[in-house]
C-alpha cells in the first residue's frame, strides 16, 4: 500500500506513522518551575543528536508543563526508563495540573541534580543533567507552525547506577531500556546482539 500524508487516507484503523518510526527511546524529563514546583513527564519524541558536544532533544506536542519550565529555567534532566520503572513512567504521563508533582503521583523517589536546578528519578539506572541550547517551533514545508516545540539541551553531567555496569559497560540486557512503539505498544531491550562496523577493503570491493 501507499498513501500521501497530506490527505492521510491510509484506510487503516490507526495512523501507522509512529509505528513505522520506532522504537523511540523515552526521555523522562524532569524540570522545576520558577515557582519551585517540580514536573516529571515522558516524551517519546526524544533522542541523542550529537556526541561532541553531547546533545539531546525532546519535542513537546503543544505547550506542556515541561516546555514552560525549561523556558523559565533553561535546564532539565532526563532519566533512563528501565523495564522495572515502566509502569511508574506511564503513571507520570497523567495530565496533572501544573504544580502537582508527578514524582508523588507515581510514587517515585526524587533526586536533585548536582549541576543544575532540576530533579531526576533516583531509581533510574542513568540520568542526564542538561542545559538548554535551543528551543524552537518546528514548521511545515509551507512554513506554517506545527505546534511541536523542539528543545535541545547539552549534557553537563551523567549519573550511572554502578549496579547496572558489567565489565565497565552499561548492561543493556539487565537494564532493559523501554522504547515507545506505535499505538499503545512498548518494547524493552532485554535481548541484545552485537555487530561490528565493517572496515572498507578496496581489494575486496574490486
Give a verbal description of the structure:
By secondary structure, the protein is an alpha+beta fold. It has a single domain, classed as Pnp Oxidase, Chain A (Roll). 16% of the residues lie in helices and 38% in strands. The strands form 4 sheets. A 7-stranded antiparallel sheet has the order 3-2-6-9-10-5-4, covered by helices on one side. A 3-stranded antiparallel sheet has the order 1-13-14, with no helix packed on it. β13 and β14 form a beta hairpin. The longest helix has 9 residues. The chain is globular.
Brief digest:
The protein has helices spanning 17-20, 65-73, 86-91, 102-106, 172-175, 202-205, and strands at 24-25, 27-32, 38-43, 46-51, 54-61, 75-79, 110-112, 119-121, 126-139, 145-160, 165-166, 169-170, 178-180, 186-188. By secondary structure, it is an alpha+beta fold.
What is the radius of gyration?
A: 19 Å
Query: How are helices and strands ordered from N to C?
Result: HEEEEEHEHHEEEEEEHEEH
What is the fold named in CATH at topology level? Pnp Oxidase, Chain A
Instruction: Examine the secondary-structure arrangement and name the CATH architecture.
Output: Roll
- Can you give the mean pLDDT? 95
Count of domains: 1
State the strand order across the main sheet.
3-2-6-9-10-5-4
Helix content range:
10-25%
Give the low-pLDDT segments. none
Protein structure class: alpha+beta
> How many β-strand stretches?
14
Question: Would you identify the CATH H-level superfamily?
Answer: Electron Transport, Fmn-binding Protein, Chain A
CATH class categorisation:
Mainly Beta
Shape verdict:
globular
Give the end-to-end Cα distance, rounded to a whole number of Å. Answer: 38 Å
Strand content: 35-45%
Largest sheet: 7 strands, antiparallel
* Number of helical stretches of at least 4 residues: 6
Amino acid at each position: 500500500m501507499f498513501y500521501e500524508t497530506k490527505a492521510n487516507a491510509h484506510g487503516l484503523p490507526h495512523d501507522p506513522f509512529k509505528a513505522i518510526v520506532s522504537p523511540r527511546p523515552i526521555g523522562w524529563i524532569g524540570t522545576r518551575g520558577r515557582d519551585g514546583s517540580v514536573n516529571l513527564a515522558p516524551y517519546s519524541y526524544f533522542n541523542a543528536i550529537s556526541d561532541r558536544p553531547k546533545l539531546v532533544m525532546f519535542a513537546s506536542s503543544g505547550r506542556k508543563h515541561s516546555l514552560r519550565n525549561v523556558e523559565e529555567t533553561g535546564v532539565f534532566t532526563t532519566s533512563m526508563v528501565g523495564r522495572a520503572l515502566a509502569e511508574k513512567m506511564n503513571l507520570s504521563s497523567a495530565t496533572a495540573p501544573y504544580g502537582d508533582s508527578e514524582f508523588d503521583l507515581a510514587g517515585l523517589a526524587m533526586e536533585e541534580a548536582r549541576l543544575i536546578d532540576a530533579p531526576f528519578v533516583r531509581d533510574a539506572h542513568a540520568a542526564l543533567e542538561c542545559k538548554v541550547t535551543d528551543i524552537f517551533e518546528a514548521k511545515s514545508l509551507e512554513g506554517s507552525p506545527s505546534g511541536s516545540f523542539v528543545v535541545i539541551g547539552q549534557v553537563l553531567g551523567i549519573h550511572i547506577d554502578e549496579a547496572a555496569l558489567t565489565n565497565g559497560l552499561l548492561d543493556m540486557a539487565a537494564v532493559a531500556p523501554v522504547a515507545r512503539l506505535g499505538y499503545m505498544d512498548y518494547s524493552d531491550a532485554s535481548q541484545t546482539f552485537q555487530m561490528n562496523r565493517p572496515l572498507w577493503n578496496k581489494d575486496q570491493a574490486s
